[in-house]
């Protein structure tokens, strides 16, 4: 029998739920950034109090600072099922993709092809398109304009002998459909094409097994996965060697610095391990002990997804059946993340969002940096969509509050 999420235990790890100014406010803007868990806040506070100095120097406090940063890399790697030296912590995923694009621009040659989608967040599209100025050829794997889905048959027709890189998303931050990453990466590998996968909209619903997915590079944002405002890049060893050091030449011996040319945010890197402390606590509260980080990761991911999908089914059913709402993406909760984008009839997404906010619903409206996707689907990016996104700490009562608020705002 599958474990059932203990919501009281979960919410006890998030100070936001004890914050008086947020009482009565239901948080449905998690796709823009989740609440931070207590262990992250504690580690950040500890770092600033005890070790706010240059790490890795000779003083014991400096050594402690460096050890905390190293531990974050190790803990993240264990949950993602990769080596610690393959984990890079940069300022944001947008900045990380910029660094990656510059790196690829140095090793690819005129006429080489990069495939991008029009389903992604612009951070995982624009930096690659900019390489056209260097003579690279950009091909677009286009969504189905009716559904926003990506079809594998369309991708297969884009590969050629000059294709070097495929860049796509684990799931869209608007459509929310979970793409078959392992299958896509396998197709790319068979065509001798490297892969960059944007997992930012997926990782808050459970850290993936990157090794099993087969991606050469996998990206996620910790601030959307209960942590500090950092972007995580997993760059597999062979790909890192191909791209080479993008930092100061004298940092060549330090792999963690290769793809973070601005240098690490010491305190936030050190605090990142708090996300894994929380996941460990979540695991140990619900399951028998295990020393396998991968078993923990799989169990926690399933626990979170099961809790979300039960609530997601209710919200999707309401939206899908309401005559004044258009649901973007699949109506099957098992095929998508807990992000629900909506276009209302008779009012703009912004007008509907305002009515919801006035009823204690924290949400947003706009294009959410998915302008190309909205244009492909015939949706005006100037108004965009209303987006309602939640994660495992959301309560059934908050779904009730949201549905009641929608009914009133649409009456």
From TrEMBL:
Q: Which residues form the signal peptide?
A: none
Q: According to its UniProt record, what is one Pfam family this protein matches?
A: Aminotran_5
Q: Does the keyword Endoplasmic reticulum apply?
A: no
Domain Aminotransferase class V residue range list: 27-402
Q: Entry's InterPro entries?
A: Aminotrans_V_dom, PyrdxlP-dep_Trfase, PyrdxlP-dep_Trfase_major, PyrdxlP-dep_Trfase_small
Give the Gene3D superfamilies listed for this entry: Aspartate Aminotransferase, domain 1, Type I PLP-dependent aspartate aminotransferase-like (Major domain)
Look up the coiled coil feature and give its residue ranges.
none
Supply the alphabetized keyword list: Aminotransferase, Pyridoxal phosphate, Transferase
Domain of life, source organism: Bacteria
Q: Would the keyword Protein transport turn up in this protein's UniProt record?
A: no
Q: Name one GO molecular function term.
A: transaminase activity
Q: What is this protein called?
A: Aminotransferase class V-fold PLP-dependent enzyme
Name its species.
Marinomonas hwangdonensis
Q: In the record, what lineage is assigned to the organism producing the protein?
A: Bacteria, Pseudomonadati, Pseudomonadota, Gammaproteobacteria, Oceanospirillales
